[in-house]
Amino acid sequence: MEKSLHHNDLGASELQMESIYRGRSLRKLLLLILLLVLLIITAGAAITKGSAPVPLQELWAMITGASADEMNVYIVREVRLPRILMSVVTGISLAAAGTIMQALLRNPLADPFTLGVSSGAAFGAALAIVAGTSVFGMNLVDSGPWLIAFNAFLFGCLAVGVVYGIARMKNSSTTVLLLAGVAIGQLFSAGVSALKYFSNNDALKDLIIWLMGGFWGSGWHVLEILLPLSALALLVLMKYAWDLNALISGEEVALTLGVKVKHIRWVCLVTVTLLASTTIAFTGIIGFIGLVAPHISRMMIGTDYRYLLPCSCLIGALLLLVSDTVARLLLTPIEIPVGIVTSFFGAPFFIYLLVKKRREYWT
Prior knowledge:
The chain is mainly α. It has helices spanning 2-48, 56-64, 70-105, 117-131, 140-143, 145-169, 174-198, 201-212, 220-239, 241-247, 251-256, 261-283, 289-301, 305-329, 338-356. It is globular and about 65 Å long.
């Protein structure tokens, strides 16, 4: 009789735990849906704002296929919509990269630039802008922004490749990985400083603008590359969400649960490197999104990477979209580089997190 009662108590407890788990999962799912709706509303508002405002009725006419002013159609389809999509994709990419790197390296200060991606990409872009050519002899006059993007991508990957190589020599230690990233980043930063010193005035101006980050080069031709690449990278990262949940408890715990720690670390790091360096190649250096978005998401939704990763992506997209809209509108018709805006809100917010947060979000 006592055994039967004990068994019934266990069954009731398990049902209660399952009910609590389902309730929490539902709340997290509803939060993600709310963030997605908020992102869509923000994007719709951003389309109508600018030096040439587009009335809401005109935007609705374009959506429904009704007659609309040709100039407004051109502004929305060829200018604002590509830029808004570019800011959303960039925010998603940088936030996803920051979230995964913080998980893999177990370091709250890790972001897409920790392993030298930004410094390598900056050097590649600087080389293209100042020298007017790439390492393969392509000419800037003929290739335009594609040469800058190609060089940035190439040297961003080169920087991370060197860091990976150094880490592998020391058994893939995360500490060595971080320190090597800092060292390689400083090396490429010195190269950028040297190119600034020797460049002429026009090249120096172009280089400084690129380093500030922005979406002036947004277009459908760029999105044709970034959209499928970002979608594929996110699918790969989501595939390892359960393994990342195990990894945040420590490598030894993850190994006992059957997680292939080294395999997952290298696959995810290569994926986020490709994601971040490709984005940086077309937008320039945009800081703090990959650092701040994961922290906000942990406070909102917890550390389950099945929900944390999409939440970080949505938060990153929202932050960058709002920042770019502010950059466009603050001094209309002059546009402020979006990298300046993200630094203005990112630095104080991150200091606030360091000083005021009440608990550690890694447990």
